[in-house]
Amino acid sequence: MVQTIEAASAAVVGLAVGAAVPERLLGQERWPRGKKRPFDSDEEPNSYKDITTYNNFYEFGTDKSDPAKNSGNFKLSPWTVNVEGLVKKPAAYHLEDFIKPHKLEDRIYRLRCVEGWSMVIPWLGFPLAGLIKRVEPTSKAKYVTFETVYRPEEMIGQRRPYLNWPYVEGLRLDEAMHPLTLLAAGLYGKGLPNQNGAPLRLVVPWKYGFKSIKSIVKIGFVEKEPPTTWNISAPDEYGFYSNVNPEADHPRWSQKSERRIGEFLKRKTVMFNGYAEQVGYLYAGMDLKKHF
Ligand code: MTE
Question: Which domains does the chain have, with CATH numbers?
Answer without folding.
Answer: 2-235 (3.90.420.10)
